[in-house]
Design a protein that fits this description.
Helix content is 69%, strand content 3%. With 274 residues, the chain is mainly α. The protein folds into 2 domains: 77 residues, Winged helix-like DNA-binding domain superfamily/Winged helix DNA-binding domain (Arc Repressor Mutant, subunit A, Orthogonal Bundle), CATH 1.10.10.10; 154 residues, Four Helix Bundle (Hemerythrin (Met), subunit A). Strands 1-2 form a two-stranded antiparallel ribbon. The longest helix is centred in the last third of the chain and has 38 residues.
Length: 274
């Protein structure tokens, strides 16, 4: 997006303006949080021109020093660029910043885990198909090495989530399309906060050992790619992502249920009013 020359006015609810005088949070951080949230929500887009120091200080009811510090912090975070002629302009989000944004969404609402897995499945199924269609013999040799390393880490419990991700990213690289690798890296990075749960939670009473399942599913995917069978590779990847998603969401639901039960017990029985 090009600079229009018209500064973007950030929507601020009246209550935020009232609270700024009461909160112990440094005033410049209020501006940083507001602008950062607007960028992450898409209300501010790359190339948009922010308000000047004077205009920010007036809108947020802070000193120009606080406004200047807020812009400097945002620039340090890579969210805005300070230009001599135009002032502060919104930068494009880097992949690691997108991952942080997605992670925050997951922390606020666990339903986003399912949403992200839905996107992940769409990308990874196609990636597996393309990998099977485009891989070379050397690629297959390297993929088997990655699979063996991944399996060893998963079975010994040494950073199993990282080993799992390395294999999936390795498959994405075989598409010969760098965007598959970049997008998948952002998605799995944003899920790192909850990936540990998959490996640290023991299997349920009626559940097969998840380690054996993951390794077996990985092997089926790698074999299909090695056989250069796109259809089978896509099908095995879809089953694998579905299993991972279902197990993770079940565990999260159980954790929420346990927390609710503990909270109810700690609060004790409700007092009946007469």
């Amino acid at each position: 997006m090009t600079i229009t020359g018209m500064p973007i006015i950030i929507p601020i609810r009246t209550i935020k303006t009232m609270l700024i005088h009461r909160t112990e949070q440094p005033k410049y951080e209020v501006i940083v949080d507001e602008i950062k949230n607007s960028i992450e929500k898409g209300e501010l887009l790359p190339g948009d021109l922010l308000l000047s120091e004077r205009e920010l200080s007036e809108q947020f009811h802070v000193s120009r020093t606080s406004a200047r510090k807020a812009l400097a912090v945002l620039a340090g975070m890579g969210l805005v660029e300070i230009t001599p002629r135009h002032g502060a302009v919104v930068s494009g989000l880097e992949p690691d910043q997108l991952a942080v944004s997605f992670t925050r969404m997951i922390i606020k609402n666990r339903d986003y885990v399912g949403h992200l897995y839905e996107v992940r499945k769409t990308i990874e199924v196609q990636a597996a198909k393309l990998a099977a269609a485009r891989c070379t013999d050397d690629d297959i040799t390297q993929l088997w090495k990655t699979f063996q390393q991944s399996t060893a880490s998963i079975r010994t419990g040494q950073d199993p989530h990282k080993a799992d991700i390395n294999l999936h990213v390795g498959i994405a690289e075989l598409t010969k399309n760098p965007f598959f690798n970049e997008v998948l890296t952002v998605l799995v990075s944003s899920l790192m906060e909850v990936f540990d749960v998959i490996w640290k939670t023991p299997p349920g009473d009626q559940e097969e050992n998840p380690v054996d399942l993951f390794v077996g599913q990985h092997q089926s995917i790698v074999e299909a790619i090695a056989e250069k069978d796109p259809q089978k590779a896509g099908e095995f990847m879809e089953r694998h992502i579905d299993y991972s998603s279902q197990r993770l969401q079940r565990i999260l639901r159980e954790e929420v249920s346990k927390l609710s039960t503990r909270k109810m017990k700690s609060e004790g029985p409700a007092t009946r009013l007469t």
